[in-house]
C-alpha cells in the first residue's frame, strides 16, 4: 500500500508538470497527444445512477488545489449526503446559472432545466423560474448566482406550489455562491434532508471531457453567455418584444424543458 501511495503521488506530480509544459510550449493548442487527469477520491456514494450500481465521487486534484469553482469543490452546509444523481443534477443547475451575469434562478429536474428566469429582483426571478414548470420543479434543484439572504430563504421555505396554491414547494438541493448567516439558518429549518451547497462560479476556458466506450471526447467548454448571442431576424416583421426575450430583461422567463418562452 505504501508503494502504491508513493507511485500515485509521483504520477500526479508528473501529470501536473506535463500539463504545464504542454501549455507553455504549445500556445493556443488545447489538445495534447495524450494526457493524464489526476483524480482524487472525495467520497463513496450510497449507490450509482441506479440502486444496483456502486458509485464514488472524485475531484480533479489540480483544479481543487488551484481553488477552481464548480460542484466538485462545493461546500455542503446542510442536509443528507449527496448521491450520484444529486451530483449530476447539481452540476447541470450550477453550470446553467453560472452562464448569467444578471440575477438568475435555475430549476433543474433530472439534469434538464425546467425553469430559468432573470430579473433584477431575485425573488421575482425565483417565482418565475418555478412557475415555468411547477410540476417538474417540485422535488428538483434550484440554483442562484446571487447570495441567498434571509428574505430569499424565507421565500424558498414558504413558497406555495403554483399548481394548487397550498402545498409548499419541496427541493432536493439549493445551490448558491454564498449565504448570509440568517439566510442559511432559515433554509436549514426548511428540512433536515435539504442539501445546501455553496459553490464558486465554474471556471471558463476549461477542457470538457466525456467518456465513451473505449475512449473519450474532449472539447472546449461552452463559454458563450446568453448576452453574447446575436439574433438574426428572418421575418419581414421586426418583433417588438425582442428585448423581453433577452436574458436579464424584466420579461425573461423560459421553460427549457418544453422550449416555451413565458412572458
Briefly note the structural class of the backbone: alpha+beta
List segments where confidence is low: pLDDT < 50 over at least 5 consecutive residues.
249-263
Specify the CATH class of the domain at 75-200 and 243-261. Alpha Beta
Number of strands: 12
The major beta sheet can be summarized as: 8 strands, mixed
CATH topology (fold) name of the domain at 75-200 and 243-261: Cytidine Deaminase, domain 2
Q: What portion of the residues fall into strands of 2 or more residues?
A: 15-25%
If classified by CATH, what would the architecture of the domain at 75-200 and 243-261 be?
3-Layer(aba) Sandwich
Fourth CATH level, the homologous superfamily of the domain at 75-200 and 243-261: AICAR transformylase, duplication domain
Average pLDDT figure:
85
GO molecular function: IMP cyclohydrolase activity; phosphoribosylaminoimidazolecarboxamide formyltransferase activity
Pfam families: AICARFT_IMPCHas
Protein name: IMP cyclohydrolase
Organism: Setaria viridis (Green bristlegrass)
Amino acid at each position: 500500500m505504501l508503494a502504491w501511495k508513493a507511485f500515485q503521488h509521483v504520477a500526479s506530480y508528473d501529470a501536473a508538470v506535463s500539463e504545464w509544459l504542454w501549455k507553455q510550449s504549445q500556445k493556443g493548442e488545447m489538445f495534447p497527444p495524450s494526457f493524464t487527469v489526476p483524480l482524487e477520491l472525495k467520497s463513496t456514494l450510497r449507490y450509482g445512477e441506479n440502486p444496483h450500481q456502486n458509485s464514488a465521487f472524485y475531484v480533479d486534484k489540480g483544479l481543487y488545489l488551484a481553488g477552481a469553482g464548480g460542484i466538485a469543490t462545493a461546500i455542503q452546509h446542510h442536509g443528507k449526503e449527496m448521491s450520484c444523481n444529486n451530483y449530476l443534477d447539481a452540476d447541470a443547475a450550477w453550470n446553467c446559472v453560472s452562464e448569467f451575469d444578471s440575477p438568475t434562478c435555475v430549476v433543474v429536474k433530472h439534469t434538464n432545466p425546467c425553469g430559468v428566469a432573470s430579473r433584477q429582483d431575485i425573488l421575482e426571478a425565483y417565482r418565475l423560474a418555478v412557475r415555468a414548470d411547477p410540476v417538474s420543479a417540485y422535488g428538483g434543484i434550484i440554483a442562484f448566482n446571487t447570495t441567498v439572504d434571509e428574505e430569499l430563504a424565507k421565500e424558498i421555505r414558504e413558497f406555495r406550489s403554483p399548481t394548487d396554491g397550498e402545498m409548499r414547494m419541496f427541493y432536493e438541493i439549493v445551490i448558491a455562491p454564498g449565504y448570509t448567516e440568517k439566510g442559511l439558518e432559515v433554509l436549514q429549518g426548511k428540512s433536515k434532508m435539504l442539501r445546501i451547497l455553496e459553490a464558486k462560479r465554474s471556471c471558463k476556458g476549461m477542457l470538457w471531457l466525456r467518456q465513451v466506450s473505449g475512449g473519450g471526447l474532449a472539447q472546449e467548454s461552452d463559454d458563450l453567455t446568453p448576452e453574447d448571442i446575436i439574433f438574426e431576424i428572418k421575418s419581414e416583421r421586426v418583433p417588438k418584444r425582442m428585448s423581453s426575450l433577452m436574458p436579464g430583461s424584466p420579461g425573461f422567463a423560459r421553460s427549457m424543458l418544453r422550449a416555451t418562452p413565458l412572458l
